[in-house]
Design brief:
The chain has 402 residues and is of the alpha/beta class. The chain folds into two domains: 12-64 and 307-399, Aspartate Aminotransferase, domain 1 (Alpha-Beta Complex); 66-305, Type I PLP-dependent aspartate aminotransferase-like (Major domain) (Aspartate Aminotransferase, domain 2), CATH 3.40.640.10. Helices cover 36% and strands 17% of the residues. The protein is built from 14 helices and 15 strands. The strands form three sheets. The protein has a seven-stranded mixed beta sheet with strand order 4-10-9-8-7-5-6, sandwiched between helices. A four-stranded mixed beta sheet has the order 1-2-3-13. It has a four-stranded antiparallel beta sheet with strand order 11-12-15-14. α6 links the parallel β5 and β6. α3 (66-76) packs antiparallel against α10 (290-305). It is globular, with a radius of gyration of 21 Å. Bound molecules: pyridoxal-5'-phosphate. One of its GO terms (cellular component) is cytoplasm.
Length: 402
């Protein structure tokens, strides 16, 4: 895209700042966002977009959810940050809310998904007998960009040029229990998996897969770690994605939507496993800070008060009703996958041009793995918004000339 064309789409001053001063490690569209409300965002030219991928899935309650805004505004004037040298009431209360809605464990707080996974990986090694350090992870998975998390991410494109990786990660095909069994040895400490692969293309595990992993873990004395950074916190219509499958992990990681758009991450572990993380072994300076804690609490309370778990299930059904028929209709639409408000439409061809095509029509979407349209809409979306956005998306897909 030429600079002249880009300049018509956003403030040339902002474009120049990025060109000169910001490291270009992201593929950025020439659009500068200035304001958001619910499922809508506005750019610096005053144009409005319906956002089906708000905040990369972080803005679970849409843009600027009032309860989160209020909680942060209140807290920021009271106490912005204090370190974990001291206690903070809100962090304790937040941990309780998460524990009660999951498997009754304890929480360690951090600031992002990759950090939550680093904590889980360290904990797995700390908890296991000394000779056990290997962690089995899955092809197509995504666990973050710091070294251990990216080493756990079994996708070669994220490893190019940055090797050597952290040793000890063993990759298996997602969904293949026999392969997992074959990879367990006397050095294995844990199995780490996304219950639903997000970045990998909204891949829902085959029936019995997570149950099978639980069984393998139990038979071999391994920890089962669920990375729910993308699928957790109500996204799938349950508090946590694993609750759709009736299998409990020993350790779970959360981030993205955890604080309704404010940065925050957490690792939960059963009390027995958590005991292996003793004072001095791990830390995060900003972890569980008062702002994140208040935002996290407000997110949970909003989900409950507004009955948003049920809404995720219901709205997910509307996406299915409107998008699934494309599979039969268009030869280049291969599959529709959805659980709650995690939605993937897989094409047989490169789908990346659809991001721009939808943007031109006032709709923000994402494409992952090159050929999967990924939608992580807000749980607070109205049915009318879902229908409007799907109509736009369907029209864009139909007029797409692969
Ligand atoms: C996004 C993501 C991460 C990494 O989270 P960051 O906050 O970007 O570090 C880890 N795991 C999964 C499943 C994710 O979707």
């Amino acid at each position: 895209m030429s600079t002249a064309a880009a300049a018509t789409k956003m403030s040339p001053e902002t474009a120049a700042l990025f060109e000169q001063y910001v490291i270009p490690n992201y593929k950025r569209f020439p659009l500068s966002l200035v304001r958001g409300e619910g499922s809508w965002v506005w750019d610096d030219q005053g144009r409005k977009y319906l956002d089906f991928f708000p905040g990369w899935g972080c803005n679970l309650l849409g843009h600027c959810p009032p309860a989160v805004v209020r909680a942060v505004q209140e807290q920021v004037a009271e106490l912005i940050h204090v370190p974990n040298t001291w206690h903070m009431e809100a962090q304790g209360r937040w941990a309780k809310l998460l524990s009660e809605r999951s498997f009754g464990g304890q929480a360690f707080f951090c600031n992002s998904g990759t950090e939550a996974n680093e904590a889980a990986i360290k904990l797995a090694r700390l908890h296991a007998p000394k000779e056990r350090y290997k962690i089995i992870t899955f092809e197509g998975g995504f666990h973050g960009r710091t070294y251990a998390a990216v080493s756990a991410t079994a996708q070669p494109k994220y490893h190019e040029g940055i090797e050597p990786l952290v040793p000890g990660f063993v990759y298996a095909p997602f969904g293949d229990l026999d392969a997992v069994r074959a990879k367990v040895d006397r050095e294995t400490a844990a199995i780490m998996v996304e219950p639903i692969q997000g970045e990998g293309g909204i891949r829902i595990p085959p029936a019995g897969f997570l149950e099978g992993l639980r069984k393998i873990a139990d038979e071999n004395g391994l920890l089962l770690i669920f990375d729910e950074v993308q699928a957790g916190c109500g996204r799938t219509g349950k508090w946590f994605a694993y609750q759709n499958f009736g299998v409990e992990p020993d350790v779970m990681t959360l981030a993205k939507s955890l604080c309704g758009g404010v940065a925050g991450g957490a690792m939960l572990a059963t009390k027995e496993v958590a005991a292996s993380l003793r004072p001095g072994m791990h830390a995060a300076t900003f972890g569980g800070n008062p702002l994140a804690a208040r935002a996290g609490i407000a997110t949970i309370e909003t989900i409950e008060q507004d009955n948003l778990l049920a809404a995720a299930g219901k709205l997910g059904g509307v996406f299915r009703e409107l998008l699934e028929p494309l599979v039969a209709e268009l030869p280049y639409v291969r599959e529709f996958r959805q659980l709650g408000l995690m939605i993937g439409v897989e094409l047989t061809v490169d789908a990346t041009p659809l991001v721009q095509a939808c943007m031109d029509r006032g709709l923000l979407i994402n494409v992952t793995q090159g050929n999967v349209i990924r939608l992580l809409p807000a749980l607070t979306s109205s049915e009318a918004e879902v229908r409007e956005g799907c109509a736009t998306l369907v029209e864009a897909i139909r007029s797409f000339k692969p």
